[in-house]
Specification:
mainly beta; six-stranded antiparallel beta sheet; five-stranded antiparallel beta sheet; 2% helix; globular
Amino acid sequence: MNIQRTPLNGVLLLVPEKYDDDRGFFTETYRREEFPADLDFVQDNLSRSRQGVVRGLHYQIEHPQAKLVMAVSGEILDVAVDLREGSTTYGLHTAHRLSGTNMYQLYIPEGFAHGFSVLSESAVVYYKCSDYYFPKGERGIRWDDPDLAIDWQVEDPVLSEKDRELPTLNEVTFKDLF
């Protein structure tokens, strides 16, 4: 596995070695020793979304989650936004195309908001989380926050009602951050 740093400290792009032949392919998707010693993934999630869907930007307080995200099928633009108070990259984002073809993964540590847009007809996204989902601690940042200026690479995004009503980063108080 080739692990590449991104412009945001702690966010990593994992590029697996993929072995193709006439039967199909094989790739290793997770190796414990590649991650911080104190990291323990405790919950796995799977979602399926249609083209144009934007999910996020989500994060949790009280029970923050590190995530390891991959697209099992289709293609997504996966986005992480630094919300760590005092970080030199606070409020900045990184975006990477993950697909069932390239098998790339994005590791996002605690302290980041996460979201993705679906670029293909549909996409199945699988991700590991370092803590359990805690509804009372769920928070989010508006997907189209002008200060973040994220190019989601979709026209007419399809959003949940909840995601449409999220605040911008400037409207979030520090008690709702990490």
